[in-house]
Prior knowledge:
Layout: H1 2-20, E1 47-50, E2 55-57, E3 65-71, H2 76-93, E4 98-105, H3 109-119, E5 125-128, H4 134-137, E6 146-150, E7 156-161, H5 165-180
Parallel strand pairs: 3-4, 4-5
Antiparallel strand pairs: 1-2, 1-5, 3-6, 6-7
Amino acid sequence: MKIKLLTLSAVLFTLSGFAQQPKFENTNADSRGYLVKIGDKAPDDFELVLHDGKKTTLKELKGKIVILQFTAAWCKVCREEMPYLEKDIWQAYKNKDVVLIGVDRDEPLDVVQKFHKDMNITYPLALDPGAKIFQKFADKKAGVTRNVVIDRDGYIRFLTRLYDKEEFSLLVKNVKELTERTSK
């Protein structure tokens, strides 16, 4: 009996150590896994290679409002959100200096191209091999879907995590307000 109690105590002690370990690898991550926050200058030291072979950077897009939607073909929540991004963001604001780019987390080109076609979206998807772009914004253990809204001057103005109708309506409101403002 004493051995069983000692074994049980050792197991519980070990499990309690796991429970106290941080959820994310990067200790700078917030409770939603973000490494960036509203008001930060958006990381821009990367190139976006789009599913059609075109390339761009945040530096090239300066002066426009940019929304990076971190996504993946396997993500059910991403698939739920994408039709709303297409209709309520891309179609509504693409002619108002808004750029929406889905950044597909660590999937090969053929998967990304099929995902784009299957979702029937017109906004571009970019490749993110090894989730290197994702990790500039969020901990590598943090999930998708998430949206990062970047203003005309390159500053982060809104962040979402998962698809929540209320938060999405705030995203749309934020984009609308940014399009109505002029650059600083």
